[in-house]
From TrEMBL:
Domain GFO/IDH/MocA-like oxidoreductase span(s) in chain numbering: 157-247
Limits of the Gfo/Idh/MocA-like oxidoreductase N-terminal domain: 2-118
Any Pfam family matching the protein: GFO_IDH_MocA_C3
Origin species: Lactobacillus panisapium
Protein name per UniProt: Gfo/Idh/MocA family oxidoreductase
Native organism taxonomy: Bacteria, Bacillati, Bacillota, Bacilli, Lactobacillales
Domain of life from the UniProt record: Bacteria
Length: 322
């Protein structure tokens, strides 16, 4: 994969710290706004990125780029992804995919017409611990209660209270805790248990944006409570509770650093099956494999998963309006 990066925010900085651990990944180019060109040049120098652009169109036309990593504010995803696809580039789009189910369907249609692959960058479903938890569910089944918690006091929250609004707290830019943090919980729950029968979101609203919230997902035989917060502090712990035991893990639901299986019979075992130290390495290793081998079947499987998550997000937003 010859990767062109669009954006230079925190997620790009984070990704670049682990890019050299991913086999067959070449950092071909980075494009930013003119205002961020100095940052882009510094990143290129530090991480060996070959080209630096201040115009996305130049990156789209670069023959040395076959895949574009879209890491811009949420509200710009649709526009940038569409342009990349129409220029014949494969796309890795940072979560959340796009704003609506209709946008997601349109982008997939255009991608298929241009014979390119599009995937959503979401860490947890590509981790070894996710697969291991999925297999371990049968040990504690039947499962009736899921409580996932991603609480992370935002470094931008104090500025938000003072009136300095970053994109992640801007409703006009598709910000908010549902889209930024609870989406990890949704991906995890949908990946483990499938689409729910009903969805209801209970947000804490400040200045027109959800700074924290609780999402309830109802299944025929279980209830899932998904908690996310950018305005609180805790050391989060998440639980999957069944008649024969509990699976629990601490910290971010996007990292899944390890997990514990507490059996009703008394045995307790702690596991870690993650291959890489950095949470983003597994997803990009998977994307390289999918794109380099033109694994359309796997890409479509990931698309179906993303669409299920998009549907939950749409229901969550609608439940607040109603």
């Amino acid at each position: 994969m010859k990767l062109g990066i669009i954006g230079s925010g925190n997620i790009v900085h984070d990704f670049l710290t682990t890019a050299d651990k991913i086999e067959n990944l070449e950092l071909a180019a980075i494009s930013t706004t003119k205002r961020s060109q100095a940052i882009a040049r510094d990143l290129a120098k530090q991480y060996g990125i070959k080209e630096v652009f201040a115009d996305n169109n130049l990156l789209f036309r670069d023959p040395n780029v076959d895949t574009v990593y879209v890491a811009v504010p949420n509200s710009l995803h649709y526009e940038v992804v569409k342009q990349a696809i129409e220029n014949g580039k494969n796309v890795i789009c940072e979560k959340p995919y796009v704003s609506t189910v209709a946008e997601a369907k349109e982008l997939k249609k255009i991608a298929d017409e241009h014979n390119v692959i599009i995937v959503e960058a979401i860490t947890n479903i590509h981790l070894g611990n996710f697969q291991a938890i999925k297999k371990a569910l049968k040990k504690i089944a039947p499962i009736h209660i899921i409580a996932l918690n991603y609480t992370q006091y935002s470094s931008r929250y104090d500025d938000f209270l003072k009136g300095k609004i970053a994109p992640v707290f801007d409703p006009a830019k598709d910000g908010g805790t549902l889209m930024d943090l609870n989406i990890y919980n949704i991906h995890l729950a949908v990946g483990l248990f499938g689409k729910p029968q009903a969805v209801q979101y209970y947000p804490v609203m400040q200045k027109g944006i959800d700074t924290s919230g609780i999402l309830v997902m109802t299944y025929s035989d279980k209830q899932a409570t998904l908690i996310a917060s950018k305005d609180c502090y805790t050391n989060p712990r998440s639980f999957i509770e069944g008649e024969n035991g509990t699976i629990y893990f601490d910290g971010s639901t996007g990292v899944l650093a390890n997990f514990t299986v507490d059996n009703r019979g008394g045995d307790t075992d702690k596991f870690n099956f993650n291959q890489y130290e950095h949470r983003m390495a597994s997803e990009f290793a998977a994307f390289v494999d999918i794109i380099d081998h033109r694994d359309v079947a796997e890409a479509n499987k990931l698309y179906d998963h993303s669409m299920a998550v998009m549907d939950v997000l749409a229901q969550a937003k609608a439940s607040v309006k109603n």
